[in-house]
């Protein structure tokens, strides 16, 4: 209900009702606030429209060299009516009467300025959606900012434009030279498949290039993390220029391990120690997780692979003494693939024995995709993931040196000399 404020200019007596609304006797003036705001908005919109059209006419006069209907020897062109176009401004939608000329092409700085504004508006809408803002929220924001609501169909069309640029980035040639260290992982998102909802895996890879900088290599829809998906993913990366791979870091996935051996036979595999710990914790009572964590970390705190192996044997024996046979079995069977990092420079160990560098990106992706919930298809999920990856890659994350690769070069030179 709209409450009207009433003012009596004859100083009437004022009585307050039970509802708290003042009633007054005598002649009154009633002001509807909502109606007033609407009238003011329309007044501003019309003023903007009239001002822009006046500017267009002035520009046309300058180009023609004469005012409308003026006869002069300096005239360079003639007016030929107008054509209309709509323009969304911060004051609402306005209709422009754009002059048509004979003998010259009408060019206007007014239109160009607002065209740039329209482009920035489009980019803002795309960024909002790709950042995980719901379509309904985008509609509300655009109505609040620009006075007109952007329809879901418009958002869809704008996203198609964005997808073209994202797809170009996703398939760009890799130009970082050689990529000694590669980190891979799969992130699961929900999508609609034939009317049913299911999880879809998006495979992600980042790397440290030969200059020591991190680089997002790419992402692709993997359906499931099986061998076929990983082989296709690795072949796609290699086809775009992934070369010189010495170590691939990731969680243990048989499909991925088989694919690494097939596509990058010279590369070694490092199982993420954090994921390894979690796997061991899954068979450890909650009351003993902290002490087991200290035992496992002690293995990877040793100064050499030989010392780590010896420490692992001691941990296995201690776990068995604690009646944690399943945990002891997991450590005994899996410890070796967590020690591959020891074959590389000790200066790099803390950077290459876990998948933390890609896990942080995954957390950012999950934070953004959580707003969307379920994606309409796999491609929209992939595009949103790639949009976030491209954004992160353009920040300090990708411009800050991550490792000093001279240590690796020296180690490889020593190995070649020894060989």
What is the approximate shape? elongated
Helix count from the secondary structure assignment? 15
Counting helices, strands and paired strands, the structural category is alpha/beta
Give the N-to-C terminal Cα separation.
88 Å
Output the radius of gyration: 33 Å
> Topology as H/E string?
EEEEHEEHHHEEEHEHEHHHHHHEHHH
Helix share bin? 40-55%
Give the overall average pLDDT: 79
Number of strands: 12
Largest β sheet strand count, sense and barrel closure: 6 strands, mixed
Point out poorly predicted stretches: 1-25
What percentage of amino acids are in beta strands?
A: 15-25%
Give an account of the 3D structure.
It contains 15 helices and twelve strands. Strands 7, 8, 9, 10, 11 and 12 form a six-stranded mixed β-sheet that branches. Strands 1-4 form a two-stranded antiparallel ribbon. Strand 2 and strand 3 (22-24) form a beta hairpin. Helix content is 50%, strand content 19%. The protein is of the alpha/beta class and 419 residues long. Helix 4 packs across helix 13 (378-393) and helix 7 (273-281) runs antiparallel to helix 10 (325-334). It has helices at residues 33-64, 109-130, 135-146, 152-170, 227-239, 254-263, 273-281, 289-299, 305-321, 325-334, 349-352, 356-372, 378-393, 396-399, 406-418, and strands at 5-7, 14-16, 22-24, 29-31, 78-89, 92-102, 181-193, 196-208, 214-223, 247-250, 268-271, 374-375. The chain starts with a strand and ends with a helix. Mean pLDDT is 79; it is low at 1-25.
